[in-house]
Amino acid sequence: MMAKAFLRRLARAQSGATAIEFALVLPVLSMMILGSIWIGLLVFTVSSLDYSVQSAARCSAVNEQLCDTTAKTVAYAEQRYTGPGATPTFTAAASDCGHSVVGEAKFDLAVVPGIKAMPLKVSACYP
């Protein structure tokens, strides 16, 4: 008899339900928040890399004084890159489409176990 009463009382008790629900939801919520931050940083890195490559390709085609050599075009692209952490490498060359610039970087994903870095590659060509 006493066991039945204890089980009934335990089934009706709700004193620790909020703490248990919070303990179950907290890991998922924190992973979603950190994942959103990392995705935002990745998008910002790609956007900044794309902007610097497009600007350098346009400078190479239009501005003869500032970007007349490939070394100056690469330096211009490096100056335009404002993204976080990743250190991109730029290459500039004349190609079939005109003046092309390629930017490559590795986005560090040290938070995710088993994934070291994500390679990023952006190219632009300006006639």
The run of helices and strands is: HHHEEE
Q: Count the DSSP helices.
A: 3
Largest sheet composition: 3 strands, antiparallel
Give the CA-based shape.
Answer: rod-shaped
Q: Level of helix content? A: 40-55%
Number of domains: 1
What distance lies between the first and last C-alpha atoms, to the nearest angstrom?
89 Å
What oligomeric state is this? Answer: single chain
Q: In order across it, which strands form the biggest sheet? A: 1-2-3
Mean pLDDT: 87
Overall strand count: 3
Low-confidence stretches: none
Rg computed from alpha carbons, rounded to a whole number of angstroms: 27 Å
Structural class: alpha+beta
Provide key terms for this protein.
127 residues, rod-shaped, alpha+beta, 3 helices
Give a description of the structure.
The chain has 127 residues and is an alpha+beta fold. The chain has one domain (20-126). 54% of the residues lie in helices and 22% in strands. Strands 1-2-3 form a three-stranded antiparallel beta sheet, covered by helices on one side. The protein starts with a helix and ends with a strand.
